[in-house]
Amino acid sequence: MGLRLKTISKDGIPEAISKVELHRYLNEPEEAESICRDILVADPENQLALRLLGLALTDQFEGGHSDRYGEAEKIFQGLTNPYELHYYMGLLLERRAKAQVKSGVTAHLLVGSLHEAMRCFEKAEKIRPPHNDDAMLRWNRCVRLLEKLERAPIEERQTAAFEDHDTAPITGRLGGRAAK
């Protein structure tokens, strides 16, 4: 069809950032993602646009194979601030685990991801900016989620959500015991 994208001006980036935030607030992550990509064409190193793009991708997580986890991970790994790198990597892991819980993935399969998220939050906490307790708030949320998963009925902990190539319930592989 011959249609081409138009490049926004660098002067328009602050207004575009505010639109990204609005679309995320309105739960319109695809619109936010599109605007972030426009910003990054105009300013490829824009750290705020990178963070917001990664968040817009995680806003779209549904807990399945179509989630663009690897893409979001690569974006967050491009953050230059060490605190933000650890914090957003932890957030990525936490959001993936929460999406997987909602999609029916067995609770015990998510424990490792949540513990890894907590390790990231712990690293971020050690180098956090003054008066910024975000990493501790996210740590606490992971602890509460882990406690909730532990309280899940034993049947939920023993039955795995099947993947396309999966033909046996997880209990068959674990000898009938739930892994914790």
**Overall mean confidence score, pLDDT:** 86
Question: How many independent structural domains?
Answer: 2
Stretches where pLDDT falls below 50 for ≥5 residues?
157-180
Shape: globular
Distance between the termini: 54 Å
Main β sheet profile: none
Question: Which CATH architecture of the largest domain?
Answer: Up-down Bundle
How many strand units? Answer: 0
**Whole-number radius of gyration?**
19 Å
SS class: mainly alpha
Any idea of the CATH topology of the largest domain?
Methane Monooxygenase Hydroxylase, Chain G, domain 1
Descriptive overview:
The protein is mostly helical and 180 residues long. 63% of the residues lie in helices and 0% in strands. The longest helix is centred in the middle third of the chain and has 22 residues. It is globular, with a radius of gyration of 19 Å. It starts with 12 loop residues before the first helix and ends in a 7-residue tail after the last helix. The C terminus is likely disordered.
Topology:
Layout: H1 13-25, H2 29-42, H3 47-59, H4 69-77, H5 82-103, H6 111-126, H7 134-151, H8 154-158, H9 170-173
Helix pairs in contact: 1-2, 1-3, 2-3, 3-4, 3-5, 4-5, 5-6, 5-7, 6-7
Short description:
This protein has 180 residues and is mostly helical. It is built from 9 helices and no strands.
Write out key terms for the chains shown:
single chain; 180 residues; mainly alpha; Methane Monooxygenase Hydroxylase, Chain G, domain 1; 9 helices; 63% helix; disordered C terminus
